[in-house]
Write a sequence for this structure.
């Protein structure tokens, strides 16, 4: 299996590029952000818990997101591989993911960081907020908090996979096609 972590700050383009990669490589996309928003839309207990935290741009608890990922990784045995987008966001989540995959005799093949500067991220997210309806994309201070949370709590995840020689970075600024080509070049070597 090809198990990929598409990594990067909010607005780096993980979701957009993940869509292209799943089509080309036949992987299953797992986006914890999408899963959480679906729980909110369905007004589940989990969704109600997550909603306030997400509105502030803070991280939902590791237990909640790991629980969501677990049911899928264990449920689908026919997958060619997974592409994790927006997960893991803490070292604890990364360790839980490594354990989950090892239970099915799998491991992370590669983490790819999409590198984008803060100014560009803020501009992209504000732009997305105009029609995404996502409240966390419409307020500069919330966006700045998400970037800060990424730097403080999420960047150690990259170190975790660097130590296993599994982390690379790719320039995340340019046309969508240019960025896809850089990603495909990494994936084709795996
Ligand atoms: P973005 O990458 O643009 O921030 P996401 O959809 O990945 O968008 O995440 C939106 C919000 O959902 C995050 O700010 C956070 O509150 C919550 N969230 C998503 N994934 C996780 C995760 N793995 N751990 C904790 N919180 C998460």
């Amino acid at each position: 299996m090809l198990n990929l972590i598409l990594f990067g700050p909010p607005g780096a383009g993980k979701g957009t590029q993940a869509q292209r990669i799943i089509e080309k490589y036949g992987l299953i996309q797992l986006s914890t952000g999408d899963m959480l928003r679906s729980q909110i839309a369905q007004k589940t207990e989990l969704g109600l818990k997550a909603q306030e935290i997400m509105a502030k741009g803070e991280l939902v608890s590791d237990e909640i997101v790991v629980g969501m990922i677990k049911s899928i990784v264990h449920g689908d045995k026919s997958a060619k591989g997974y592409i994790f987008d927006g997960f893991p966001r803490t070292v604890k989540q990364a360790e839980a993911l490594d354990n989950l995959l090892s239970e099915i005799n799998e491991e992370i093949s590669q983490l790819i960081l999409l590198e984008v500067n803060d100014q560009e991220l803020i501009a992209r997210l504000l732009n997305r907020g105009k029609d995404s309806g996502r409240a966390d994309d419409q307020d500069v201070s919330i966006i700045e908090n998400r970037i800060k949370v990424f730097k403080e709590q999420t960047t150690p995840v990259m170190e975790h996979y660097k130590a296993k020689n599994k982390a690379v970075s790719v320039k995340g600024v340019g046309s969508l096609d240019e960025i896809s080509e850089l990603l495909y070049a990494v994936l084709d070597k795996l």
